[in-house]
Task: structure prediction
Amino acid sequence: MDVEDWYHTYFPEDNVDRSYSLMDGLDVALDVMRKRGIKGSFFVVGEIAASLSDTLKRMDSEGHDIACHNNEHIRPLSMDKEQFRSQLLKAKQEVERILGHAVLGYRAPSFAIDDERLSIVEDLGFKWDSSKLQPQKSTKYGYLALPGFTEVSPCIYSNKEGFMEFEVSTQKIGSMNMLLGGGYFRMLPWPFMKWMTKRYLRTGNPYIMYIHPIDLSHRRMPKVKVGGINKYLRTHIGRRHMLQRFNKVLDLLEKNGYSFVTIEQLRSEING
Ligand SMILES: [Zn+2]
Result:
């Protein structure tokens, strides 16, 4: 889960009222996972980490990964390299101050990262990243070619220093690599999403689904004056059914023989 509020997900650069929060969606996810005995990887936006400090400390002690997701949820590709480095360092230090230990994982907002910026992530002491997607048609996303990395297991890559990349799951449909998470997971019709997910699971490859608190929150999405009808629909469609859908996909994974690990668990198992 990318631990960010509604304004980070859909309005990161707009002047909207941030006093209202949909962060209860994090508690909904944790409740589902607790009942099923599942641990996950949570990528936290630095500027809201202090407001979640008790929750993050508890999650950390329960075995979830607490990782970084930039300081203000600005796309890395819209920052120059020095801005990217300094805001990421700030976010990392903030989360480390709260947890009292090193933060090892990172994911770029909107997966909008390139290989140069990924090397900054490694320089700052992170041990792994999960921002790689198969190529996307939308220019919103970035692309990691991963020079110097080898694929050590399907969808998992390592360089010679042991820094690892965990690819977020997509399913190829025609010429498109469809994302199996995020807003797509909420908005696409369930029969289609179920068919795509089952098709992916038949490969036996590791499956990384990602969601946001906004997808699972029980609260109403605020009415926002920016963004137009397109954004209105993207922030509203499917929210009522998402909890049920989240459980359905976890059932699908179990039925197909998948077990659940955090990315950090997987990294340390592979690295020995
Ligand atoms: Zn995000």
